[in-house]
Amino acid sequence: MEPMFDLELHCHTRYSPDSLVRLPDLIERARTVGLHKLAITDHSEIEGALLAHEMAPDLIIVGEEAMTDQGEILCYYITDLIPRDLPLQDAINMVHAQGGICGPSHPLDPRRHGIGVDNLVNYASQFDFIEVFNARTRDHSKNEMTQQITENLLRPMICCSDAHTLQEVGISRTRFAADVTCAADFLRELQRAQIVPHYSSPMTSAGSLLATIAHKVGLDKRR
User: Fold this and answer.
1) With 70 as the cut, is the pLDDT of residue 58 above it?
2) What pTM was computed for the model?
3) Domains along the chain?
4) How many CB atoms lie within 10 A of CB 29?
5) What values do phi and psi take at 131, rounded to 5?
6) Please, how many CA atoms are within 13 Å of residue 128, restricted to the half-sphere of its CB?
7) pLDDT computed for residue 181 by the predictor
8) Average pLDDT, the chain
9) How confident is the model over 89-141, as pLDDT tens digits?
10) Order of strands across the sheet with 194-196?
């Protein structure tokens, strides 16, 4: 049997305004559910990802879900924050300039800052991957359409949980045949990766709503 290395590539912590997940709990959960790599992609923030990487460098990929002027992109293997609301082209360039890789998150989901079909097609050659399955996308046709377009464009695909609670971590995965330690490894293995899609419960949105309220009333950020 060939080895399998499962990656969770879209995950939030209490460093996002809509999650309350603590870093030690997240790391423990990732190991419990058999993940080999976990990309922390907080909204326009990398502080939590950097701290988590110090705590578990074998597990954590430092990432960000960066908001551009056209919508959100997932960024991996970055060292510097991608500022909010940059032009999409500038954000892509900034990621690549620091040796990172990037691609759009839930690109056809207008309810959650997807970049839209025109940007998906026009920037496809500059994206290192496309998130074709997001477990929190409630209109399943959006995932299906994204995958079809991505296949037609011959671009690499990832499948993600978009976890905002511990229970969501690892629900959906991208499965590699070998472990990865850098962006070059990631891109190589992505060419032969499998996607393992499962939808999360609609109730997960309630967890995000409660987290948003908690942050607004002053819940501080703690490890």
Assistant:
1) yes
2) 0.95
3) 5-216 (3.20.20.140)
4) 21
5) -75, 105
6) 21
7) 96
8) 94
9) 999 999 999 999 999 999 999 889 999 999 999 999 999 999 999 999 999 99
10) 101-104, 72-76, 60-67, 37-40, 5-11, 173-176, 194-196
Q: What is the pLDDT of residue 72?
A: 98
d(CA 168, CA 88): 29
Q: Which two tokens stand for residue 167?
A: 């229970």
What lies within 8 Å, CB to CB, of 217 at 6+ separation is none
- Considering only the C-alpha atoms of the chain, give the largest distance between any 2 of them, rounded to a whole number of Å: 51
Amino acid in the structure at residue 160: C
| Distance from C-alpha of 43 to C-alpha of 121, rounded to nearest angstrom | 24
Q: How confident is the model at residue 1 (pLDDT cuts 50, 70, 90)?
A: low
Task: For residue 135, give both structure tokens.
Answer: 């477990």
Let me know: does 136 contact 111? Beta carbons within 8 Å.
no
Encode burial over 75-109: b for 16+ CB neighbours within 10 A, e otherwise. Answer: bbbbeeebeeebebeebbebbeeeebbbbbbbbbb
- Report the SS3 class of residue 91: helix
Residue labelled with tokens 């995932």 = 143
Strand runs (DSSP E) across the chain, as ranges? Answer: 5-11, 37-40, 60-67, 72-76, 101-104, 130-134, 157-160, 173-176, 194-196
Instruction: Give the Cα separation of 79 and 82 in Å (integer).
Output: 9
Q: Helices 23-32 & 47-55, crossing angle to 10 degrees? A: 60
Kindly give the residue spans of alpha helices, DSSP state H, lying in 2-104.
23-32, 47-55, 88-97
Locate 199 and state its tokens: 């939808």
pLDDT of 89 reads 98
Amino acid at 40: I
